[in-house]
Specification:
It is built from 18 helices and no strands. The protein is mainly α and about 375 residues long.
Length: about 375
């Protein structure tokens, strides 16, 4: 009992400590809190095993956390605002989504003989490069990817993403300016940073409301799946393992539906709560780590990810050039797809264009909403091949 209690405390409290520590140490901040949570989980997995902890508990907790995190992240999405996106911005983001589907599918056929769970890796990366890390975890669970595969994909994504982000804020603006049309300013300068400072501070009530509502979404999704007939004769809660993909699609759908309710959408703290759930998930996944399962396939996963990420970027840029989309719009929608909303502002600042901040964030939110559908859908299709 004591090892189980200790494990729960580690999962719940380690992210808070690491977030505080990373603010004080620049090196840790540059590594990223998600990576730190994974690393701490892996390090602590060894003494936890020595204490006799059942690490399957960490796996069960991680499954619940990702089901709660996804609707929390989507609750604050102002999806009706997407109609305000200019056609080139929406078109460029659509090109990114099509590009990642094409490249990830081709990558599956290239690497399926060498990479374990190649179909699941492709599905996870479709969601990642349409939405973001939360989609990666949700799709990984939905497709039944192993903890080791999810960890290796996340670590590889951090390395490859770091390379691409450096290019976005350094040499790419000047390079693309030579080959692609200039951005045409329309005089709209949304004060994203200012409005964020003026936002209502979340209270305990807000956190409880958001987390409780997200938990109800997860419970409802599981309840629906319990009623679906089992292919293998399982009964009750034992059916849930068969229907993980359906559970993830249902919690995504519930999150999107509830985002149209003003009280839910305007509740402060839901997005932050969802991100904290992802950090707890990362610690839990690290605790599930089995070093014996890591082989030379880790390098192949990294190579496959590099092919998918940079292949997507190249296809996106080439098509955008062919249809006449400017390089500011292309870069900001590529950022929204590959990284999500959090990286929009620094890339917009590198381009010296505040006009594209809000549209870029909206594209990132749209990616969160559609990423699970694309990733799980194509992943399931590739699994049948």
């Amino acid at each position: 009992m004591l090892p189980a209690i200790l494990m729960v405390l580690i999962i719940a409290l380690a992210p808070a400590g690491l977030m505080r520590l990373s603010k004080k140490v620049k090196l840790l901040e540059s590594l990223g809190t998600v990576f730190l949570c994974y690393a701490v989980g892996i390090i602590l997995s060894f003494p936890m095993k020595a204490l006799g902890a059942q690490l399957t508990l960490a796996s069960d907790i991680s499954s619940v956390l990702v089901c709660v995190a996804m609707p929390l992240i989507l609750f604050s999405a102002d999806l009706p605002a997407l109609r305000n996106l200019a056609k080139p911005m929406l078109g460029s983001f659509a090109i990114n989504a099509v590009a990642v589907v094409i490249v990830a599918s081709l990558s599956f056929f290239i690497f399926r003989g060498a990479v374990n769970e190649a179909a699941k890796v492709s599905g996870m990366l479709i969601g990642t490069y349409t939405g973001g890390t939360p989609n990666m975890f949700a799709i990984g669970h939905g497709l039944g990817a192993s903890a080791e595969t999810m960890m290796l994909v996340q670590t590889s994504d951090m390395i490859a993403g770091g390379i691409y982000f450096f290019l976005l804020v350094s040499v790419l603006p000047g390079l693309l300016k030579r080959f692609m049309p200039e951005y045409k300013y329309v005089g709209a300068l949304p004060q994203v940073e200012a409005s964020a400072e003026q936002a209502e501070k979340p209270s305990i009530y807000h956190y409880a409301f958001g987390i409780g509502l997200a938990a109800l979404c997860a419970i409802a999704a599981m309840g629906i799946c319990v009623m679906i007939p089992s292919k293998y004769g399982n009964t009750g809660l034992a059916k849930l393992g068969e229907h993980t993909a359906i559970i993830m699609l249902l919690v995504t759908t519930f999150g999107i539906i509830l985002s149209f309710v003003k009280k839910v959408r305007s509740c402060p703290g839901t997005y932050e709560s969802g991100q904290y759930c992802i950090l707890m998930f990362s610690v839990a996944m690290g605790l599930c780590f089995d070093i014996a399962a890591v082989t030379g396939g880790a390098l192949l996963i990294f190579v496959a990810l590099m092919v998918i990420q940079f292949g997507t970027v190249i296809v996106h840029y080439v098509i955008a050039k062919l249809v006449g989309i400017d390089y500011h719009t292309t870069m900001i929608t590529s950022t929204a797809g590959v990284f999500g909303p959090a990286f929009i502002i620094p890339v917009a600042k590198a381009l010296k264009n505040d006009e594209i901040i809000l549209p870029g964030i909206l594209c990132g939110i749209l990616g969160y909403a559609i990423g699970n559908y694309l990733g799980i859908g194509l992943g399931q299709l590739l699994l049948m091949i």
